[in-house]
Amino acid sequence: MITVIEGVDRDRHPALIDQMFRMRAAVFADRLGWDVTVVDGREVDRFDVEDPIYLLSVDEVTEELRGAVRLLPTTGPNMLRDVFSVLVPDGAVESPLIWESSRFAINPDLAVGPARHDPNQIIDTTTIELLCGLVEATQLAGVEHIVSVFDSRMARIFRAVDCPYELIGTPARIGKTMTYAGLFEISDALRRRLGNKAGLRQPVLSSRSFSSTRATQQRVLQAVS
Q1: How far apart are CA 168 and CA 206, in angstroms?
Q2: 172-181, 184-193, 206-215: which has the highest mean pLDDT?
Q3: Cβ contacts of residue 169 below 8 Å, gap of 6+?
Q4: HSE-up of 8 (CA within 13 Å, CB side)?
Q5: CB-based contacts of 173: which residues, under 8 Å, 6+ apart?
Q6: Can you tell me the distance from the alpha carbon of 141 to that of 68, in angstroms, rounded to the nearest whole number?
Q7: What is the pLDDT of residue 63?
Q8: CA distances (Å), 1 to each of 5, 25, 108, 190, in order?
């Protein structure tokens, strides 16, 4: 199931948040070799202090973190606008109805088969569960689109799980990685397609997450008004 944690509530989930930052270090620094800052085994960036929303895939039995992704409104600081502006030379996307997803990661310790040895092959139920959770959470909040910066590895994953996007701006090679910006339309049809890929036809958000998504909805409504 997916647990939704508002940034301001992270002190209520210290163990999960710590697992997430350690997992991000293992994925982005150790496995993918990205230019990220790791301190004491944790990957944390400046956007983690901007009251983000975290979606965490958690094993209901062991309570072990399986994967995570972060959401930020495009009306405030976000990675596309403030780090990857080269991708959108005509100006970054900014709307209370469009949020940015970033730091999508799957726990490499739980990968099986080819995924254990090749990070390009991590396409499993947790990946699709997180994508389903993104759709459900943003729908509940009244968000209409998600924008995301991603590399060719994630582009292959999106194609494999039937998660279409509109390419915006100009792709560019950043470091060793070809990097893209994409806009995803949030819809019931997208949720059904993703769910059909992994048999996840029932809601994936934990019932404990509903209060968080309602709080997020208030943020969206305040921004719109």
Answers
A1: 32
A2: 184-193
A3: 87, 88, 89, 90, 181
A4: 4
A5: 179
A6: 19
A7: 87
A8: 13, 23, 18, 19
Smallest Cα–Cα separation from 107: which of 4, 202, 199, 30? 30
Asked if residues 67 and 46 have their Cβ atoms less than 8 Å apart, the reply is no
Q: How confident is the model at residue 123 (pLDDT cuts 50, 70, 90)?
A: low
Calculate what percentage of the chain has a pLDDT beyond 70.
Answer: 86
Amino acid at 50: E
Closest CA to 57 of 216, 205, 213: 205
Domain 2-224 fold = Aminopeptidase (3.40.630)
User: To which residue do tokens 């991590």 refer?
Assistant: 122
Tell me what pLDDT residue 8 has: 77
Of the candidates 116, 101, 114, 205, the one whose C-alpha atom is nearest the C-alpha of residue 158 is: 101
The pair of three-digit structure tokens given for residue 184, joined into one six-digit string: 């995803």
Evaluated on CA atoms 203, 207, 101, 224, the torsion sign reads: positive
Length of the chain equals 225
Q: Where are the domains of the chain?
A: 2-224
DSSP 47-66: GGGS--EEEEEE-TTT--EE
- Residues 95 and 23: their CA atoms lie apart, in Å, by 30
